[in-house]
Amino acid sequence: MTLVAHVAAAADRVGADTPALIGLPADAAAAPARLTYRELLERSKAVAAELHRRGVGRGDAVAVWLPNVPEWLVVELAAARLGCRVVPVNTRYREAEIRHVLTASHARAVVAPLGFLAIDPRAMLGDWTGLVLTVRVGDGGAAPDGAVPLESLTEPGDFPEAGADAAEEPLNLFVTSGTSASPKIVVHAQSSLVTRLGAAAERFDIRPGDVMLCALPLCGVWGLGATVSTLLAGGTVVMLPTFDPDRVAEVIGEYGVTHMHGGDDMLLAVLSSSRLDAERCGRWRSATFGNFSGRPPGDLFRAGERLPGLRIAGAYGSSEAICFVAAWPASAPYERRVLGGGPLTDEETRAVVVDPADGTELPPGTPGELRLGGGTILRGYLDNPEATRENITSDGWLRTGDLAEITEDGAIVFHGRLKDSLRLRGFLVDPAEIEECLLALPGVEAAQVVGATPPDGRGEVAVAFVRAEPGAEPDPERLRAECRGRMAAYKVPERVIVLDAFPTVDGPNGSKVRRVELRRMAADALAASGQEAAC
Questions:
Q1: pTM of this structure
Q2: Domain 1-18+34-195 architecture
């Protein structure tokens, strides 16, 4: 069945007048926007009819440049009805990036916000000639000439609804590098999303009457995945256009939130908020996280002890394979839930770990490159056959570029990006091993380890960056000495550098440490050490 058919089936199970989406405004004093399942399905028909009337049809792309508002999902279902493609666009993008995405995706229409942050669609779209639909998000903001207010589209009209065969056609196009000269645009079919996200709803135990809080941007696979999985299960999604941990904490209690997914830093900020009332927030029972900050997962789990009924668990996914490829169930023991990965979420996905040098399959418990197969992975990169050939093998396996292992019972344990792994004295070393050693030392709050090559030609060495605990002043040489007593000599960091903060970048799934910047800093530090030695 198609995505629309699955959402309609959920509406039949829970009742069409059940709340599907509750959009909270940026101004906490303003009234929320609410859509029942009936209204969501009917409004998607009205938008589909308008797109059809304006010449947008099967196979065309519609760019959705919106924050987290109910209309996002209205357009998603409208496009699914027409057999269109949805291009999620980050609201942080500026004019050059927006134009780039619209051109690269061949978008025929764009849905733009009015009154949200500093976005000015009239100026930023300029002379772009496609159809513009607008959504009023806040006060102010001028619409481009000829733009259609999406809020005015409420009456279903006539349009050729795509049949069941549209399930195997592209639905979502995720931009993986929107600021580059040649962005990679990942193509996913409707059936891929329905299969994975329906299975994710079961893994996360989303039931009718449950409430998912979506604070991650819908332009990313995690935010969209959490939302769609909830709709497929007949739950209610509460949406916030911007993230503020104190407000999120209040919303969890006010709306009886049962599920919230996000980056570890996002969840930790909410669980640490003074506004989080343990009694009012007692329905919150599931939080799936990705470790993006570099801090030990134990910090997040300790913060979660404020809510005795909350189960926190790691997961694994990517734009190419959709979110929640693997996730730990709430019943898994603590020592597994702190890890990224878990058992595969759906039965259609296959996973193997291979030697990155020759592609031979490795036995359980041996780290190597994770490869994924089955009907849920990407269908390719839009207009980029070279990238498709580079990333998908001739027999259909996706080269994830991730370092992982598969356990004896078939679960994935994610270690990190393969390019972040270290080749020290000929040995492949997971930087997390060195980071865990540093995190166990007094005064260290967070650690990141990267590889760099010193000017003396010895080959790659480890360089560690640490962030101190409040009030602590760890001595780099003492930390190195402690490491020497706890691990093999070739793993001991050549340098330990204390930083006030790690360089980060904000993405649609949360803030991530910029390891590429750390590698540059490490190379500079080793070069400076070499010059000092020469003097």
A1: 0.84
A2: 3-Layer(aba) Sandwich (3.40)
